[in-house]
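hiii so um. not sure if this is the right channel but i have a protein structure encoded as tokens and i wanna go backwards to a sequence. like what aa goes where. can anyone help
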């Protein structure tokens, strides 16, 4: 009698309770757009209410005093190299049990509402 493989459920999406938001961008092209993102009351309220570390907005050419990318941003700058900017990482915040774990990596959503929806998905929250 042939055996049938047991169905395996797909892995659950990565859920983080404390997020560090890392946006790799071309600073010259992003200044005007950034204001719309971080003045959106729903998005800002969601981030503030959960006390997520302030979003890190890193220019694609950011360097520290030594002329090199800061150690904590270097992996994201490397992973975003060659990608269309702005590029987003949602990462477990420093000091959290999930520190450094990447829950999302990809293009920055088109609108603040889309980013809020993504944040809610990554944190396991429901609603719009």
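sure thing!! here u go:
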């Amino acid at each position: 009698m042939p055996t049938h493989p047991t169905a395996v459920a797909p892995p659950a999406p990565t859920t983080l309770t404390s997020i560090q938001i890392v946006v790799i961008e071309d600073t010259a092209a992003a200044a005007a757009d950034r204001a719309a993102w971080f003045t959106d009351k729903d998005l800002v309220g969601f981030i503030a209410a959960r006390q997520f570390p302030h979003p890190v907005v890193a220019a694609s050419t950011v360097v520290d005093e030594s002329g090199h990318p800061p150690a904590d941003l270097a992996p994201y700058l490397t992973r975003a190299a060659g990608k269309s900017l702005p590029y987003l990482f949602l990462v477990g915040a420093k000091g959290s049990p999930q520190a450094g774990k990447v829950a999302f990596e990809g293009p920055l959503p088109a609108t603040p509402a889309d980013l809020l929806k993504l944040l809610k998905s990554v944190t396991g929250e429901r609603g719009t």
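oh and Residues 19-122 form a domain with the Glutaredoxin fold (CATH 3.40.30).
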